[in-house]
Write a structure and sequence with these properties.
By secondary structure, this protein is mainly alpha-helical. The chain is 70% helix and 4% strand. The protein is built from 17 helices and 3 strands. Helix 6 (147-169) crosses helix 8 and helix 11 (278-295) crosses helix 12.
Length: 443
């Protein structure tokens, strides 16, 4: 009886460890396939063979039945917060690898995981605000804005981040935070246009829109859809559309108020601003990607590699776009390049490939096209068909980015025979989690 009680206790502790690891990975933006694969690897190594794992957008469930005549042991964990922290993601990834190489036992792993969860963020919050400002400055520079507009976009982004932070501390839903962010961006543009009439504030609003869209999990939704997790993908798509609708409501409300005050602002046309040069394009993309990584608490050692990968990818994107005039193929080829090099780069800087991939893709996200499409749909009339076409193009670009990255990872990762068996069941290369799976027989 004592041995049976001890085994049940160990089983419960193992399931709880796997669920806590999966919760942190899912809340940090990892795909459902990566979360499932990591939990499967961890459970298998700790002696639980063939557990049932169910990952959705808001919950994780895991069960195990060692005897058909006995009832299964099942645990469920809710994902209540979605705070992206690439530093914690990296620490958990290294913890899983330590468990699989027998450097840490079950008790040690639970203690280390508790320390990771309870330690808070590694960077002060004001530094995150500054990073969001630098990101918007990089976007404005990438789009050919002047130094004045770059500075205005930086200040506006910092102010928007503080407003959204105050709202999040009062637990207001994300939709209202996006509305407030879009409204603040439009009102600040109105104030600048009233004070300095000759200033083109459209790029400032455009940069702030990209900032608001950068944290939306639209890319994760496409990745989940491609890897067969359609329920999670549908939930993420709905969240992305709702957040985008909040941005449109806030910006349109601010522009309406500007019209009532008699302040004219040039129409925000995402396709109007062109890239002024190769150097400016590469520098803006590098600053944008590195700043987004810093705002997501990525380890500092990964910022320079992220900037380099992003600048090379945007140059490749620009070259393909100039030669083929196809944004979809340009995005797919650039994303394929990111996925191919991210595995090697992440290994050198000791971070999961996801930490390199997501920030490097941010400068190429179709957020502006999504905004333009939904804005045209809101206008109605003859603009509806144009808006639908814009949304279809944005969806195509998003699918191209996600599928290009996954294909690049497939070719980059040295899939061994043992890993190949696991990936054939879990559908997808690892952007988070160990590549090699080892099964240890418990005696």
């Amino acid at each position: 009886m004592a041995a049976e009680t001890r085994d049940t206790r160990t089983l419960n502790l193992t399931l709880d460890l796997c669920l806590r690891v999966g919760e942190l990975l899912l809340s940090s933006g990892a795909g459902a396939a990566d979360v499932t694969a990591t939990m499967q690897s961890l459970a298998r190594h700790l002696g639980i063979r063939h557990p049932e794992i169910d990952v959705t957008f808001t919950s994780l469930a895991m069960s195990y039945q060692h005897d058909p005549e006995e009832p299964p042991v099942m645990q469920i964990r809710q994902v209540k917060q979605r705070d992206i922290d690439y530093d914690d993601l990296t620490k958990v990834d290294r913890l899983v690898r330590a468990v699989l190489t027998d450097e840490v036992d079950l008790a040690g792993a639970r203690a280390r995981l508790a320390g990771i969860v309870s330690s808070g963020h590694g960077s002060p919050r004001w530094l995150v605000t500054a990073a969001w400002g630098l990101m918007c400055g990089g976007v404005t520079l990438q789009l050919g804005g002047t130094l004045l507009v770059v500075g205005l976009a930086l200040v506006a982004a910092a102010f928007i981040d503080r407003v959204q932070l105050a709202m999040s501390r009062r637990r207001l839903p994300g939709f209202y935070q996006q509305v407030a962010g879009g409204l603040v961006a439009a009102l600040l543009a109105t104030a600048v246009a009233a004070a300095v009439p000759d200033t083109d504030v459209s790029l400032m609003v455009t940069a702030n829109i990209i900032m608001l869209l950068a944290g939306i999990g639209f890319m994760g939704a496409i990745q989940d859809a491609l890897t067969g997790f359609y329920v999670t993908a549908g939930a993420r798509v709905l969240e992305a559309l709702l957040a985008t609708a909040g941005i449109i409501a806030g910006v349109s409300g601010g522009l309406t108020l500007a019209g009532l005050l008699g302040v004219e602002i040039a129409r925000v046309d995402p396709g109007r601003a062109g890239w002024e040069g190769v150097g400016t394009l590469a520098l803006g993309s590098a600053v944008c990607a590195a700043a987004f990584a810093a705002a997501s608490y990525a380890p500092r050692r990964s910022l320079v590699p992220v900037a380099a990968v992003a600048s090379l990818a945007i140059l490749l994107y620009s070259a393909v776009l100039a030669g083929s005039d196809s944004r979809v193929w340009a995005a797919a080829i650039a994303a394929f390049a990111i996925g191919t090099v991210a595995y090697g780069v992440s290994g050198r800087v000791r971070v999961p490939p996801l930490v390199i991939v997501v920030p490097a893709i941010v400068p190429m996200l179709p957020g502006l096209t999504i905004y333009r499409g939904l804005s045209l749909l809101a206008e109605g009339g003859t603009s509806t068909s144009v808006g639908l076409l814009a949304l279809m193009q944005a969806a195509s670009v998003a699918v191209a980015l996600a599928s290009g990255v996954i294909l690049g990872e497939y070719l980059a990762q040295p899939l061994k025979r043992e890993v190949g068996r696991l990936e054939s069941r879990l559908a997808g290369p690892r952007l988070v989690g160990p590549l090699r799976v080892r099964a240890i027989r418990r005696r």
